[in-house]
Each structure stands twice: as C-alpha cells, then as structure tokens.
Design goal:
- This protein has a single domain, classed as Rossmann fold.
- The radius of gyration is 18 Å and the shape is globular.
- The protein is about 35% helix and about 15% strand.
- The chain is α/β, with parallel strands linked by helices.
Length: about 325
C-alpha cells in the first residue's frame, strides 16, 4: 500500500501566496469560519477567501480588534470566541448555528506559542487547551453545519517534532517546558485531523493539518527578542535574519490550499506543507521537515479523541 504522506505534484510551492491560490476562483456560495482570522496567517486567509467572494466568519477573543483589522474586507462577520473557555466555545457555536445553516470551510488558525505556564479551564495547560481542546470542542459543536461536504483545516506546525503526546502528564503537572508544551499541542492538532477525517468521511467531511512555515507574526508575542536573536531568527537590530522565513501571505497559502485544492478531493487526514502533502519524517535528526509518524498515527489519534472528549464533556459527539 502506498504511503499516503506522499507529495501529489502540486503546482504551488513555498513561495506561493494565499492571494495567488484564489485567483480566478468564485467562492460566492461558500461560508468559511477562520479562528483567529483577524491576525497573522488568519488575517491573510480571511483576505484571500473574502477576495474570492466567500462569506467569512472571523472568530476572535478581542472583537473590537478583529473588527478594526478586518475593516474594509468585504463580507466579513466577526464573532467572539475564546478557545480557552469552553463556555465561550458553546456560546459561539450556539450563535453560529442560529445564523448559518451551512459551514463549508473551517480553518482552525488561532493559537498560542511558547507562553509562560498558564492554567485554564479545569487546570489544563493553556497551549494544549487553546490550540487543541478549544478547536476539538468547536468542531464537535458545529457538526450540524459541517456534515455534508465541509473541509476542516487545522493549523499544526513543524513544532510538533519537539514532542509527541505526553500521555503520562499531558498538562505538565510535573515541570513545565514552554517548547515541549507547544510541540505537544501541535502534535495534537495533527492527530485531531487524522481522527476527525476518519469519523467524518461518512458525512463527506474531510480534514487536513499543516505546517505553514516559519513566519514572523503576533504568534511570537511571548518570546523575548533576545531569544529570537539567539535562535537566528532576528539580527542584533531586531530585523529578520533567517532567509527561510516566509511572508505572512506565503505562510497562509498552505491552509488556503488545503481548504480549496481539487487535488485533495477524496483524500483526508493528511499533513501538508509548502502547498503539497508533506513527506514522512523518519530520520530522527531535528530537520523539522515533514511529519513525524507519531503525529499521524491512527491509534494515537483515536486515543487523543477519547481523552479530549472526556476533558471537554463532548465524548459522545459526532
């Protein structure tokens, strides 16, 4: 059996922008939801989809900021959503379903990275809760609008190479490491797409995860400049020094490609990068290219789904 994590000869690449991916497309009958759609890659995704005629719902914790940043973009609706607060997720879903019968695209773009140790909900580690559990709850609650042909695109990261799921201590009760916590949350994003696709394909719902690339966005807000200089991302003046970084417009391209590409028709549960299906990363050296086997393992994906259902109280959904 062929390895599903095999590139499919996409005509696009790392230099492609989100705007280029929607050139000539008519999305006028499409409703899209972009979490964090007012900032960084989410904002560029919102711009691209709206430019092609889609109705875009931007889900944001700070509604005023989201309205200000999306002002002038046609056919955008802003609604409050705090992914770290399950009550907020439930309220958002209830309002959404009251206004929209159909959701064609859900792009889970919002997230936090390398934040100081923070507890939310029932003492949950904040990166796992925000990046994964909030989106898990959101998709389950919006299922009536998704079933029947939607695509769900979950923004993971090459950061997943840093850590598999820490089954013995998911919430870092015994020693916190901000990068391991981020890595675990991004592994969770990929595994979520794997099992969602498995459960959803009978309703014609397909799911994908992806690495957008390295991009300077508000995602780095918790990182001291000195740390980014030490990593080689910035020079001593605080300006971009790493030539492998993408622009935000290029960084948003893979999630737009995963949402719209006809080449992905009939496929799902795949991890993508640079506007193509990513290769499997079997080499243990830290290249951060491709996807680690543990991030697409169906057994781990099913186990994570069960745990997420228990934690959120949504175990019986879908």
């Amino acid at each position: 059996m062929a390895d599903p994590q095999t590139p499919i000869a996409s005509p696009f690449d790392a230099a492609t922008t989100a705007a280029q991916l929607v050139e000539g497309r008519d999305l006028s009958n499409t409703t899209a939801l972009v979490t964090g759609g007012h900032s960084g890659l989410g904002l560029e995704t919102t711009r691209a989809l709206a430019c092609a005629g889609a109705r875009v719902v931007v889900a944001a914790r700070d509604v005023a900021a989201a309205r200000a940043r999306t002002a002038g973009i046609a056919d955008v609706e802003v609604a409050r959503l705090d992914l770290a607060d399950l009550a907020s997720v439930h309220a958002f879903a209830e309002r959404f379903l009251a206004r929209h019968r159909r959701l064609d695209l859900l792009i889970a773009s919002a997230g936090i990275m390398a934040c100081p140790e923070t507890r939310v909900g029932q003492g949950w580690e904040a990166q796992f809760a925000t990046n994964h559990l909030g989106h898990f709850a959101l998709v389950n609650l919006l299922w009536p609008a998704l079933k029947g042909g939607a695509r769900v695109v979950v923004v993971s990261s090459a950061g997943h190479h840093a850590s598999p799921i820490r089954w013995s201590d998911v919430h870092f009760s015994h020693g916190y490491d901000k990068w391991l916590a981020y890595g675990q949350s991004k592994t969770a994003n990929a595994l979520f797409a794997v099992h969602l696709d498995r459960l959803g394909r009978h309703e014609d719902v397909r799911a994908f995860s992806l690495h957008p690339g390295k991009i300077l966005t508000p995602l780095q807000r918790h990182l001291p400049q000195a740390e980014m200089i030490a990593a080689g991302w910035l020079d001593a003046r605080g300006e971009l020094a790493d030539p492998t970084f993408k622009t935000p417009q290029q960084g948003a391209a893979t999630q737009v490609w995963a949402a719209l590409s006809e080449q992905l028709g009939g496929k799902g549960g795949l991890y993508c990068e640079d506007c193509d299906v990513a290769t499997l990363a079997l080499d243990e050296s830290p290249t951060y290219v491709g996807v680690r086997p543990y991030a697409i393992d169906p057994e781990q994906a099913e186990r994570l789904w069960a745990l997420s259902g228990q934690l959120t109280g949504l175990g019986g959904c879908l």
